[in-house]
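Worked example 3. Consider a protein that binds magnesium ion.
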Amino acid sequence: MRRVVFNQKGGVGKSTITVNLAAAAAKAGRKVLLLDLDPQGNASHYLTGSSTAPEANAAGFFNQMLNISLYEKPPQDFIAPTCHDNLHLMASHPELSELMVKLEARYKMFKLRDTLLQLQDSYDEIWIDTPPALNFYTRSALIAANRCLIPFDCDTFSRQALLGLLDTAAEIRADHNPELQIEGIVVNQFQPRASLPVRMVQELKDAGHPVLQPPLSASVKIRESHERSLPMVFLDPKHKLAQEFSQLYANLAQH
Ligand SMILES: Nc1ncnc2c1ncn2[C@@H]1O[C@H](COP(=O)(O)OP(=O)(O)OP(=O)(O)O)[C@@H](O)[C@H]1O
Ligand SMILES: [Mg+2]
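Given these inputs, the predicted complex is written out as structure tokens:
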């Protein structure tokens, strides 16, 4: 399984959701790789607790694509274990920003897919966090993945924007990646007592969009989770939000 978490809008919960669902998978005993393609590196920071990129990182991986050499390092060389069992990371690096123009100019968009197909033998699940833009990395991830999750933030919901994201994924599927399935919309920071978000989510369901269950609550605990570099299922497994992540993961895993 190769999942991408995608929404070009910033701050909707992509990194939080990627890290927590990957952690739920690792806790369930699956061998998991998290690939952080966002130069901001929030998912990497969340998992490692360090704002300095580890030596094994995605910039090294993409750099190698640009520098043909006789001796090519295997993709595993750009991946490191985290302090959590079963959870490995290809970390972000700030250099990813500069590399992007060169990678685009040299048509490297399909390379990530080849690598993930190779890595699939070593991992049960691969999770990809993407930047808040529809750029080279996001497109590479949508071409490389076979499942796509779209986080949706009730606060600033725009139906038009969401339809645009579904169209983008459908276009990539049609043009480049017939395997890509929109697994569903992850409702984040849901407030069940506020009438507007409840109505918005209902409208999405009524229109036949795949809204995943359960929605994720808004919780200040997530800040502690980020600060302590402990995904919710490890920080406080009994917490409502931790249980929602576990349940959401279990619902996905059934497919
Ligand atoms: N369920 C939640 N409850 C409370 N706060 C949340 C929740 N999910 C995310 N947040 C907060 O919202 C902010 C944005 O989350 P996150 O970084 O995961 O979004 P993102 O889509 O990855 O952002 P970017 O587009 O910048 O990469 C963070 O400060 C995070 O702590
Ligand atoms: Mg992010």
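Take a moment to read the result before moving on. The chain has eleven helices and seven strands. Residues 10-16, 38, 40, 42, 132, 188-189, 216, 218-219, 222-223, 226 surround adenosine-5'-triphosphate (ligand 1) (CB under 6 Å).
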